[in-house]
Design brief:
By secondary structure, the chain is α/β, with parallel strands linked by helices. Helices cover 39% and strands 12% of the residues.
Length: 259
């Protein structure tokens, strides 16, 4: 028991050392996965069991927020769009214990904390494509006001409370164009439902570029998808991400920053 207590103390000490977390380049999503797995008392694979230590659970929770400082922002105006369809709760990301809802909410919180110029919205659509008032405000769009000091569970609860509709990945571009919102990139998180509505996302982005930011980029992350395509393969400013892991945020940031 003494050895276990000493080991737990060492883990807590290392998790609480923000300089060490920074040197090791530990990112929030890596900590979040550990935070989800550890309290179960066993790993996702294998049969070994352990008794979770409450102080390690608390240290992992604190480390999640402490590692926000390790995220390199793109430092460009970004519109982050979250799919709020019901399937986001039931869609689990391959190789992890996170649902698409949890991971996308975590990305929203990290973005709010690290990007100096970002707008976060939730999107949904009526069954026939565009239309319908979901959560008030613009058709298909609900602005999501997040404070960097918010807890992740509060963000998940906030997003889950937004009335749900279908998935239409063109809505963020359509909304930004209608409201004259100037951004350098659209980053959309959905699960495996990446269908287009009345207008294809590629066309919606083209219209936005013609009127506002001519080099605006678009990234669509199908977090649990086995394969999809929305991006125009001839458009260097569009990126499809199939699946999701801890390296994806850095890939997106590099893509947005690139000239």
């Amino acid at each position: 028991m003494a050895e276990q207590a000493q080991a737990a103390d060492l883990v807590v000490h290392k998790l609480g050392d923000e300089a060490l977390l920074k040197r090791a380049r530990i990112l929030p999503l890596a900590v979040l996965i550990a935070q989800k797995v550890y309290p179960q008392g066993r790993g996702e694979k294998g049969s070994l069991a352990r008794q979770p230590a409450p102080k390690i659970i608390d240290a992992l929770d604190a480390a999640f927020y402490a590692t926000f400082q390790n995220v390199e922002p793109c430092r460009k105006p970004v519109l982050l769009a979250l799919d709020v369809s019901g399937s986001m709760d039931g869609s689990m990301i391959a190789g992890s214990c996170l649902s698409a809802r949890e991971a996308s909410a975590a990305m929203a919180l990290v973005t709010a904390a690290t990007e100096p110029d970002c707008e976060i919205i939730a999107f949904s659509a009526a069954a026939g494509g565009h239309g319908g008032q979901w959560g008030g405000g613009e058709s298909g769009i609900t602005r999501v006001a997040l404070s960097p000091r918010m807890r992740l569970d509060s963000v998940i609860k906030k997003v889950r409370a937004i009335p749900m509709g279908g998935t239409d990945c063109s809505l963020p571009m359509v909304w930004a164009r209608r409201n004259e919102v100037r951004v350098s990139a659209f980053v959309t998180y959905t699960d495996s439902e990446t269908r287009a509505g009345n207008i294809h996302p590629t066309q919606a982005l083209r219209h936005y570029r013609e009127e506002f930011v001519d080099d605006a980029k678009a990234v669509v992350v199908g977090m649990t998808s086995n394969g999809f395509t929305l991006a125009d393969p001839n458009d260097r400013g569009m990126l499809d991400v199939v699946g999701f892991d801890t390296s994806v945020p850095a890939v997106i940031s590099d893509f947005v920053r690139a000239a």
